[in-house]
Specification:
The chain is an alpha+beta fold. The chain has seven helices and seven strands, in the order E-E-E-H-E-E-H-H-H-H-H-H-E-E. The chain folds into two domains: 94 residues, Nucleic acid-binding proteins (OB fold (Dihydrolipoamide Acetyltransferase, E2P), Beta Barrel); 103 residues.
Length: 222
Amino acid sequence: MSESHHPEKGPFLRELQPGDIFVGFYTLRNKQLEPFRDASRGNFLTLILSDSSGQLLGRVWEGGEEAYEELEQGVVVKVQGEVEIYLDRLQMRVMQVRPAKADEYDRRDMLPSSPRGRDEMVAELKTFIDQVTHPDLRALVDVFFGDKDFLNNFAQAPAARRVHHAYMGGLIEHTLELLKITSTVLEVYPQIDAYLLRTAVLFHDMGKVREFIWDLDIDYSD
């Protein structure tokens, strides 16, 4: 069972089982009004909700049009719901939903993150940095990784919006994996400049700290 960063988070989506009745906080990824088969009944509301564990489809059968007007995509909402199976797929019957207040959730519960701890990865990164002893290259590395704000962003940032390491901490995790590979590369090709190789790996994706923004979702910056 996942451990939440906020005491009121409620169950993570991955933990929900058919028949569960719950209250929780989730990010509203998408909202769409859809017509009932009986047109006289108007529209119901389909929601895609997410947290750090995944996504789940939700349906607002009553008051869907009013909820559509009240809710904004990309924000956190408080949901009271029941889990059910429809067409062999898990979904949520939303009984009540409203925008969440700022103090009711922690954004760390909403975005997926690396299974490795931040402090652990930063400490490991510094051991590789210490292997760059060439004075000019080390000076260059320290300009960036010696900056606390840059290092903090580097340790938080995703490595991608989709595909690989697309989660908080993904950039530093991906960089560490490549730094480990450099040891094997240097064994096979000892003629390679080890200092230059490790510096190149440290720098190869550093622009991700500005390419992406991350709050309640991972997206591209301007």
